[in-house]
Amino acid sequence: MKRKLFLLLIPILGLSMFSRAQGDLLITPTRVVFEGNKQKTELNLVNIGKDTATYSVSFLQYNMTEEGTFVSIEKPDAGQMFADPYLRIFPRTITLAPGEPQVVMLQCKRKSDMATGEYRSHLYFRADKKANPLGLGKTDKDTTNLKVELIPIFGLSIPIIIRSGIVNVSSTLSDMKLETQADTIHNLKLTINRTGNISLYGDIIVQFIPPTGKAFEIGRVNGLGVYTNINKRNVSVRLHNVPGSVLKNGKLKVQYVSNDPTQKTVTVYAESELEVK
């Protein structure tokens, strides 16, 4: 009896730490920092899809580039420290029905010999898909047909950070340049500079200050991190609400501010101005 050959391709999708939902999985919070006396936290998961799904939980290691993309690594660079040896998570496998929530416990176990600075790893939630082994499909007399089945495997990673000892960080903004296309599309390019032994995470806010009247917001990028493996990050901000020639004879005020809903006040990491003629 002749059999049809089944080819199974499984792409891995969705490794963006800035996504709040990927592959029908919603996670909050999307970033965890253990500092001070904090020893544990809860992660809230919800299956927002229409099918029951099983997720496996593990740790991955990434480096950030100056353009903000992530590169998978196995060994830390000089001075870089991974957080996963000091982290415990339960459960490691989660099955959720449509609409079902689940709380995942994440615990930080510090050691007395931990170096001063920041430890970082990424917690990875991978959707497990069941598939028949290769060649176990239905029999068919026609051996000339090749069936290709694509099964997407979705994953979502969030950064987990541990801060140890006396930490410090400061930031400046530089290399600001306004680019205009077709007289109506405006982009502001700039560089976030970081010094210190911990990372930064926040929002870029751009305001236009006209010759008269009040300043108003014309651009924003939320959730910009500058991790400890880099000292600067290049950013491009798309500007909006700019009718005609409004960007003339004024200033652009740019701020890099904290993005932490638990803080009562917003911290300004850095700010700068650019004259627009």
Structure description:
The chain has 277 residues and is mostly beta strands. It has 2 domains: 160 residues, Immunoglobulins (Immunoglobulin-like, Sandwich); 108 residues, Sandwich (Immunoglobulin-like), CATH 2.60.40. Helices cover 0% and strands 56% of the residues. It has no helices and 22 strands. The strands form 6 sheets. Strands 2, 5, 7, 11, 13 and 15 form a 6-stranded mixed beta sheet that branches. It has a 5-stranded antiparallel beta sheet with strand order 3-4-6-12-10, with no helix packed on it. It has a 4-stranded antiparallel beta sheet with strand order 19-18-21-22, with no helix packed on it. Strand 18 and strand 19 form a beta hairpin. The radius of gyration is 24 Å and the shape is globular. The N and C termini lie far apart (80 Å). 22% of the residues are buried.
* DSSP helical segment count: 0
* H/E element sequence: EEEEEEEEEEEEEEEEEEEEEE
Beta fraction: over 45%
Q: What is the H level of CATH, i.e. the homologous superfamily of the largest domain?
A: Immunoglobulins
Mean pLDDT: 84
Low-confidence stretches: 1-20, 131-139
State the shape: globular
What level of helicity do the residues show? under 10%
* Biggest sheet statistics: 6 strands, mixed
Structural class from helices and strands? mainly beta
> What is the distance, rounded to the nearest whole angstrom, between the alpha carbons of the first and last residues?
80 Å
**Count of discrete domains:** 2
The total of beta strands comes to: 22
Alpha-carbon Rg, integer: 24 Å
* CATH class category of the largest domain: Mainly Beta
CATH architecture of the largest domain, by name, is Sandwich
**Within the CATH hierarchy, at the fold level, what is the topology of the largest domain?**
Immunoglobulin-like
